[in-house]
Specification:
Blueprint (H helix, E strand, L loop, with lengths): L1 E2 L10 E2 L27 H9 L6 H13 L4
Antiparallel strand pairs: 1-2
Protein name: Nudix hydrolase domain-containing protein
InterPro entries: NUDIX_hydrolase-like_dom_sf
Organism: marine sediment metagenome
């Protein structure tokens, strides 16, 4: 899915992709101020986290709900 998060404000476009068959590849080369962690979450719990406002990031919400709609999970 691709979408404009700030229509009328700027021309930024966000592209979301689905990756599968991922494998752990080792240490990441992060910037000094970067903190990244991978967390596995059950899909039903993920939807519940969106519904209850625990996840409020628009990129995450758009990607998860688009996936759920395409897979007829909602």
């Amino acid at each position: 899915i691709s979408y404009y998060p700030s229509v009328g404000y700027n021309k930024e476009i966000i592209h979301c992709f689905l990756a599968s068959g991922l494998k752990k590849s080792g240490n990441l080369k992060l910037d000094d101020d970067e903190i990244i962690s991978v967390v596995k979450i059950d899909f039903k719990k993920l939807i519940q986290m969106i519904k209850t406002g625990k996840i409020i990031d628009s990129k995450t919400i758009c990607a998860v709900l688009t996936y759920a709609a395409k897979k007829k999970l909602l």
